[in-house]
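Protocol step 4 of 6: structure prediction from sequence.
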Amino acid sequence: MIFNFATEPLFLIVNSLVFKARSSDIIKIPKFSFNKKFMLVLIILTWCFFYISIETNFSNLLPYINLVSDKFSYMTVSVFWIGIIVGRFLYTLILPMIKFRLETLLLMYTVISFFLYIMLIYLNTQDEIRLIILFLLTIFLAPMFPLGASIINQHSSNKRVLTSIFIAVAGCGGVIGAVIIKVALYIHLPVYLSILFILMVCLILNTVILRTKL
């Protein structure tokens, strides 16, 4: 009951942004329409929720995952955020040159990030190599959030409000994602596996977004 009460306003806002009522229907009681465009917006918002839980919590927990020895552990957070900055700067440069769908680009970034993350976790190599892999990983993670915002804005005439909802959902993802990881720790699931599972969810959602034809 509480969940329904909390989610109903967001449902109403998103529904009003995605769909416009005809003038002949203005006096009628509005009806919710679960067509493909509305469901696609919800899927993108869900993807945003899970992605931000990775970006926020992965950076905070890097020193505790023990990816590198104590000698280099203090550098992991700095490498992460430098990679995010560089990745988003490079994204602004290549975006005008992109000739294919943004959904395809988002899936490409996610697939590359997924394999780089697996290499980072399971590849037994020197600390310096792991720091380089971490840097490359964050470069490919960085454009995903602005890409998601651009994709969701394609499906609404009121871009400002929908972007605000997108950012609000991202904030919830950062907070609730930390709770999910903490619960996983209670059942003895390592942090790096929690991040891997969340990244897999993002990959599945990206595939659905790409395959959804309006």
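Step 5 (inspection) to follow. The CA atoms of residues 75 and 157 lie 43 Å apart.
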